[in-house]
Write a structure and sequence with these properties.
The chain is mostly helical. The protein is built from 2 helices and 2 strands.
């Protein structure tokens, strides 16, 4: 269902928003898998002797932080999309009630 503003312009399509959320969640699942792999690599590398192991651990920590930051941003995007859809549902309901009451726009 598409939501419209007072000028009748489509402002958000709930189905498209849900598809976007689904895709973001799929991306988050892949990021979680990558994070687990990096954590396993870090654990293995931490038992290595010499500078190579330390360098791998350092890079793993950097990648873990980047993944965490990206996960936070993607979760924020999901919340924003959901909040926006809810806002337009409420606005559509308000306008529908106004029309039913004979008030027009």
């Amino acid at each position: 269902m598409a939501y419209h503003n007072e000028q009748g312009q489509v402002t958000i399509d709930e189905a498209a928003a849900n598809v976007d959320i689904h895709r973001i969640r799929e991306g988050l699942t892949k990021l979680n898998e990558a994070q687990k792999s990096i954590n396993q690599l870090k654990t293995t590398a931490s038992s290595m002797k010499g500078l190579t192991g330390a360098a791998i651990v350092e890079q793993c920590m950097r990648l873990e932080k980047q993944i965490t930051d990206l996960q936070d941003k993607l979760n924020g995007s999901i919340r924003f999309i959901q909040k926006t859809v809810q806002k337009y549902k409420e606005e559509d309901q308000r306008l529908a009630n106004k029309f039913r009451a004979g008030g027009g726009v």
